[in-house]
Design goal:
A hairpin with a 5-residue loop joins strand 1 and strand 2. Helices cover about 70% and strands about 5% of the residues. The protein has a two-stranded antiparallel sheet with strand order 1-2. It is mostly helical and about 150 residues long.
Length: about 150
Amino acid sequence: MLNETNIEVLEEEQEEDIIEELSDPFHASNNLDFLNGDNTCLYLAFKSYHQEQDFEASVSYFQQALTYSEANQEDTQTSQSGSIEISEPDDSQAKSKYWLAESYLKLEKEDLAINLFEDLVSHHKLHYLSLAAERRLANLFGIHSNKD
């Protein structure tokens, strides 16, 4: 049976364990595997793009986020009735492609940007960034035809 004294002792032990976990850098470093996830890569990519304007770093982070989201993409499934259930476009994949292309434009790598915008338009037709990619392509092709 738990009484007030037992509860206080348990709370103190739990508090000591938490403090020990937080103060042990080796233990903490082993628990940071979540940093490899796409959401964290997207966060770091957006931060490097918008706040730090470090476009080389944002390219690296967007590539990591894209790789992660492609590796964890859900397959199309068939329901019990036999109809095909198409999942919504992968939001992080579309965002990664769009902003990776924008980063390439900042680094003056237009061919890579154009390829990503075209891929976004063809593979993520229902995503809102598909429309933005179409506008960017029209603008880029307009610039190319004016240069020629």
